[in-house]
Please model this.
Amino acid sequence: MTIAILGAGAVGQLIAHQLASTSERADWPMLLGRDAKALTAEFCFTPLSTQTVAEVQRRRFAEAKLNTVDLIIVTVKAYQVEDALLPLLPMLNADCHILLLHNGLGPHEAIAPKLAGRGLSLGTTSQGALRVGSQGALRNSPTELKQTGTGLTQFGHFSGPALSESLKQRLLQAIPGSEWVDDILTALWQKLAVNACINPLTARDRVENGALDSPQYQSTIDAVIDELLAIAAKEGIRLDRAALKARVMTVIKLTAANRSSMRQDVEHGRKTEIDAINGYLVRLGERHGIDTPANRALFDAIKAIEAAA
Ligand code: PAF
Model:
């Protein structure tokens, strides 16, 4: 059972660590950079429970032999999925299963028809991790990863052959707080609502997530959710308004001290995931003839920040 992780950012490294911690060395996953070269450099991992360097664990990952991979977990950003994954497909076995794990929605629609019969699963995670130390220098030198939060991880089947039961169990045993759900699209739409509210507002106003609990943000949050609900209904996704608002507000409170991923992206002058979050809603709104002024305003605001960077 060989697992590869495509994308050596914080989430990719965290999952690599979790899989490595729960298996024999021979079964450790491959960690692949976006150019699909195996990363052989060691990295340090600081678990959530400790801040001390003494307890840092070191892991070494194998060289890539892509034709031996049974499951490839794609942890690059939504806007990188196609460019990172499509060139690898000819090197993968015909029965290699693909699992996409990123914020936002959209890439699965482009990817699914190009998999030549391979199975596709989707997932979402609220686990938090931060790369510290030699940022981005994984290939040549050790880098450090610090887990910053626990949270729900959900996986589910999307198209083609299902993931084997043994690989499913391997994932669920390795990743704390993970579950396999029957209806992954509904779970991803719920997470989309969280990201569509929290990410652009915190990035635009450079505030911590907890600031969105104040009355000044409630009308925007309500409008973003109402637009999302109308579009989801057209897509055949049934969501409950009160439950969705409660979920968004719960995440705001639970992650009150966090800098959202989109705020971090704009503060570092990086491209954001806005296209796969509010941008996805704007595009679907156009397709269904539904106005999306609240999502469009946030989309435009983040695009303006990106353009000025
Ligand atoms: O993208 C993020 O930052 C996270 O998904 C979340 C849940 C909004 C918390 O910051």
The longest strand covers residues 143-149. The chain has two domains: 3-181, 186-308.
